[in-house]
Amino acid sequence: MNTRERVIQVFLYVVFICYLFLLIKIFFLSRVSISELFNSHRTLVRSINLIPFDSIGEYLSGSTANLKRFAFGNVVGNIVILIPLGVYLPLLKSNTRVIINLLFIFIVSLFVEIIQGLLGIGIADIDDVILNCLGGWIGILGYNSLLFILRDEKKVYTAITVLSVIVGLPIIYYFLFMIRMRF
Q1: Closest CA to 75 of 120, 115, 135
Q2: CA atoms of 108 and 89, how far apart (whole Å)
Q3: Are 108 and 85 in contact (CB under 8 A)?
Q4: Which band of pLDDT confidence, cut at 50, 70 and 90, is reported for residue 176?
Q5: DSSP for 2-21, written as a single string
Q6: d(CA 115, CA 94)
Q7: In the predicted model, is pLDDT for residue 127 greater than 90?
Q8: This model's pTM is above 0.85
């Protein structure tokens, strides 16, 4: 591996690690701070939905503008948040089949929802798992489409790294540091 390839690899891993921090913030620290999370006097409010498409159906049938705006943000947010993971998985784990990557995304999403339910952080919802998997699948399709267009894994690796640094890193920075973190 030459120096250019090492630099590209380092940039990709730095952006990926920052993305993981963003996921932790969004999934676990967006509704409760770290100090509140482990406070023994915190009131736990658990809400768990195990009925597929129940929350999405409620959002669609909602009549108020605020509910529709929240629903749109929730549905789109749950899809968008794992698109990068779907892109990064084929880059970081070479020679992995799509079904294995989708299974990994499913397990990560399910794990997040279980932790949210156990710790009483937000709502543990099967619809979130479905939407997260859809987002991961879109990311995998994006990676495969780029691979089809460029026809060279090294070019795809470089292109995704450049896009991650130019577009992804500023977005991650904005959500990590510009939006108030609850510590």
Answers
A1: 135
A2: 12
A3: yes
A4: confident
A5: -HHHHHHHHHHHHHHHHHHH
A6: 29
A7: yes
A8: yes
